[in-house]
């Protein structure tokens, strides 16, 4: 049942809608039986709602929760966090691991039409899709002070959210819990996981059955991950061996933090950037529809997204003949469908979004989005440079981890991910860069590690880009299905 107090004045601050701080809100949840764009009742159980976190619960986090279509009483309970930071979790719901996907070029109920996704992770897990931090997706805040977030505060609030979620959903208290997500969330996933373990030890209620975590294409060590782009570019034949070795030597292996007064190093980096400027950094095989790529010494957004107004979208792009028969395929055009769907009045009503709290749903809030070299954005502080120390802490616990990387991702290359995993000094066990398979075909390579009660699987996903499940949904589904079942992937 949806429960909410009477609403009192709403204010606008920096273009964002805020509820008056004296508004009293009760955690709410709604079972959604029908969605605009989909014919008939939903064949899965979808719940949407808000949970307040932080001081006086001023931050109201919106979530979608889909019970497992398999065995909800025993299947894992996972939370999925989108990247950015500041990207709405509908991106995961429609494009990555969710139960529905968009039928491009088709419309129903005046919105983009929806269909079921056969590779939804909800077939093997109970999945919470969370709009976090605040001012992401449909989440909002009641006070100007709580508009601003950071790596640490976002992790703390998400850990609080999870404990409150299972308290309000006690049937899932015993289910194995995993913290999962993609891209920039790699910074906060191990922090949240460690917070949950510590909270249990400190007697926080309720005790959650935290068992581990999972990161897809995870930004983890910001300097190391950015530095690894150069080696990746060389391995993929985008730059010559001579240029690679000269850059490596004259920049002393550090391209992310290079001194701009080091003219020799900077000249090599300029040459590298000339070679890769036409490459799509998120999926090297896709056409490049964005501004010129720079591997280092540029803004280096970790995930592309838009904060452009719905009104700025060219409606003609939504027509099939424009979207599918133009000369260049641009994956970003697909995301406009989600923006149109999420801003429809009937969709907002069906999801039971609190009236007046979100002026406009955005795929990504660019006032938060990570830019390498900047300590903060207007609404977000990047105050964790590396989360490797949290992986080290977790490696001393009874904990499972799965880290996977699309091998066509030059945004957060698998090269850098493999480097920080190696720095943990774990023991390689059953597999050492062995092939893993989906439908009898090579789907990538895996290495398994362990230390006492800790285990970690690192897997590449062949042919996948920065958000691996978006590019290789069936292969990623097979991978996590096996991992959740404690089987070799």
TrEMBL record:
<feature type="transmembrane region" description="Helical">
    <location>
        <begin position="12"/>
        <end position="32"/>
    </location>
</feature>
<dbReference type="GO" id="GO:0004185">
    <property type="term" value="F:serine-type carboxypeptidase activity"/>
</dbReference>
<dbReference type="GO" id="GO:0016747">
    <property type="term" value="F:acyltransferase activity, transferring groups other than amino-acyl groups"/>
</dbReference>
<comment type="similarity">
    <text>Belongs to the peptidase S10 family.</text>
</comment>
<keyword id="KW-0472">Membrane</keyword>
<dbReference type="GO" id="GO:0006508">
    <property type="term" value="P:proteolysis"/>
</dbReference>
<keyword id="KW-0325">Glycoprotein</keyword>
<protein>
    <recommendedName>
        <fullName>Peptidase S10, serine carboxypeptidase, Alpha/Beta hydrolase fold protein</fullName>
    </recommendedName>
</protein>
<dbReference type="GO" id="GO:0019748">
    <property type="term" value="P:secondary metabolic process"/>
</dbReference>
<dbReference type="InterPro" id="IPR029058">
    <property type="entry name" value="AB_hydrolase_fold"/>
</dbReference>
<dbReference type="Pfam" id="PF00450">
    <property type="entry name" value="Peptidase_S10"/>
</dbReference>
<keyword id="KW-0121">Carboxypeptidase</keyword>
<keyword id="KW-1133">Transmembrane helix</keyword>
<dbReference type="InterPro" id="IPR001563">
    <property type="entry name" value="Peptidase_S10"/>
</dbReference>
<dbReference type="InterPro" id="IPR033124">
    <property type="entry name" value="Ser_caboxypep_his_AS"/>
</dbReference>
<keyword id="KW-0378">Hydrolase</keyword>
<keyword id="KW-0645">Protease</keyword>
<keyword id="KW-0812">Transmembrane</keyword>
């Amino acid at each position: 049942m949806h429960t909410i107090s009477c609403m009192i004045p709403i204010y606008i601050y920096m273009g964002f809608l805020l509820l008056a701080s004296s508004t009293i809100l009760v955690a709410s949840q709604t079972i959604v039986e029908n969605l605009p764009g989909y014919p008939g009742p939903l064949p899965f159980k979808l719940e949407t709602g808000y949970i307040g976190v932080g001081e006086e619960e001023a931050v109201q986090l919106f979530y979608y929760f889909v019970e497992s279509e398999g065995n909800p009483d025993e299947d894992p309970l996972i939370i999925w966090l989108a990247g950015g930071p500041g990207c709405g979790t509908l991106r995961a719901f429609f494009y990555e691991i969710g139960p529905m996907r968009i039928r491009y070029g088709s419309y129903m109920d005046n919105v983009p039409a929806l269909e079921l996704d056969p590779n939804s992770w909800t077939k093997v897990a109970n999945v919470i899709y969370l709009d976090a931090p605040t001012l992401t997706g449909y989440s909002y805040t009641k006070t100007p002070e709580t508009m601003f977030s950071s790596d640490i505060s976002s992790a703390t609030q998400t850990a609080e959210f999870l404990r409150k979620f299972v308290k309000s959903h006690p049937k899932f208290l015993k289910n194995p819990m995993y913290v999962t997500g993609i891209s920039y969330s790699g910074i906060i996933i191990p922090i949240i996981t460690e917070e949950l373990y510590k909270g249990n030890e400190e007697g926080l209620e309720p005790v959650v059955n935290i068992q581990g975590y999972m990161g897809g294409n995870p930004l983890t060590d910001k300097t190391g991950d950015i530095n690894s782009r150069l080696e990746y570019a060389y391995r993929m034949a985008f730059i010559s061996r001579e240029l690679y070795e000269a850059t490596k030597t004259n920049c002393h292996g550090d391209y992310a933090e290079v001194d701009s007064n080091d003219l020799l190093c900077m000249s090599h980096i300029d040459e590298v950037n000339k070679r890769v400027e036409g490459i799509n950094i998120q999926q090297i095989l896709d056409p490049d529809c964005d501004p010129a790529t720079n591997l280092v010494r540029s803004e280096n957004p970790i995930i592309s997204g838009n904060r452009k107004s719905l009104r700025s979208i060219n409606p003609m792009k939504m027509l099939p003949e424009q979207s599918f028969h133009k000369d260049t395929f641009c994956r970003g055009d697909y995301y406009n469908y989600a923006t149109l769907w999420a801003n429809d009045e009937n969709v907002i009503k069906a999801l039971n979004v609190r009236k007046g709290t979100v002026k406009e749903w955005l795929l990504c809030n660019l006032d938060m989005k990570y830019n390498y070299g900047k300590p903060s954005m207007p609404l977000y502080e990047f105050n964790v440079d590396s989360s490797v120390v949290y992986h080290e802490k977790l490696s001393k616990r009874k904990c499972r981890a799965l880290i996977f990387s699309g091998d066509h991702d030059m945004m957060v290359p698998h090269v850098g991910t493999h480097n920080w995993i190696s720095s943990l000094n774990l023991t390689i066990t059953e597999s050492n860069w062995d092939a893993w398979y989906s439908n009898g075909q090579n789907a990538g390579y895996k290495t398994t590690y362990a230390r006492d009660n800790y285990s970690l699987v690192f897997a590449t996903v062949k042919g996948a880009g920065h958000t691996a499940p978006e590019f290789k949904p069936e292969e990623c589904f097979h991978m996590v299905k096996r991992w959740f079942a404690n089987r070799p992937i």
